[in-house]
Specification:
The chain has 318 residues and is α+β, with helices and mostly antiparallel strands. The chain has one domain: Beta-lactamase (3-Layer(aba) Sandwich), CATH 3.40.710. The protein contains eleven helices and ten strands. The strands form three sheets. Strands 1, 2, 3, 8, 9 and 10 form a six-stranded antiparallel beta sheet that branches. Helix 1 runs parallel beside helix 10, helix 2 runs parallel beside helix 5 and helix 4 runs antiparallel to helix 5. The protein is globular and about 55 Å long. The N and C termini lie far apart (94 Å).
Amino acid sequence: MRFVATALLLCAALTAETAAQTRYSTQGMRVDGTICVDAATGAVLAQTTADYPGSPASVTKLMTLLLVLEDIRDGRTTLRSRVGVTKEAAGTGGSQIWLAVGETFTVEDLLYALMLKSANDVAVALAVGRAGGTPAFVARMNRRAAELGMSRTRFVTPNGLTYGQGPHDTTTARDLAKLAVVLCGMPEALRFTSARRYVLRRPFKPMEVLNHNHLLDSFPGCDGLKTGWTEAADASIVTTAKVGEHRVIAVVLGCQSPLGAKAEQRLRDQLAADLMKAGLAKLQAQPRLPALKPAPKAAVKPKEEPGFWDWLGDLFSF
């Protein structure tokens, strides 16, 4: 009961907008920042310490997804292109699909594994495949973040997997919302983030991967985007839902609970659900503006032909 009461207090507090740049804390629970925006316009519907820095953990993979999809859009690769597994990718820890050196997969396979399984080894394989190495790809991530106005974001990995004192990927709830607005405008991105399961086509050993985002099943209209958790970064999520003609994006960054990882992940999901529910209600309550009608064309008076006296006046004008 104490956990439930604390969670309710925290959820209530998160509905109030504030510009204070300090971590919110209630009886040991803490969240670095939250925000809910209209996906169509980026307009802020609710926020709490949205500019406070935190570590996004696997939510970092959303930028990796964006760069790969933009490369596909620009003709630099395709979903059917194959990506080889290097020693660097195979040696990545954390959540993974246990890539082996020498294996090859399609970009499509790897994007599903990246979004559903949150595979850190896959993120490195894509980074190496798209930029020749992780440092070059991370540099691309930071350039793209700057272009999107993510001024308080600094990536150091393609997957968000960092340890101890870091350095860590750093961002804010507001910056992640800017990234999510772009992704929500790409139907191909939501195709990967909304899938519940995918069978990775592996010779002799197909592998089923399941989506870590439980809001896909529990929140009506939810079709993305990405969860994240590490011991160093705590629990984060960027999620979106569309109901009718309205779509919202909710971000919860750096949610921590003294009750451990599972508790903070449940709290993170509940906060995100509450933000989306309130955001959708706010959009639905707004009166719909009538469509703008073109202004009636002003009547044009026929131009009269100049007469004799007009001609004579022009003749003596200087």
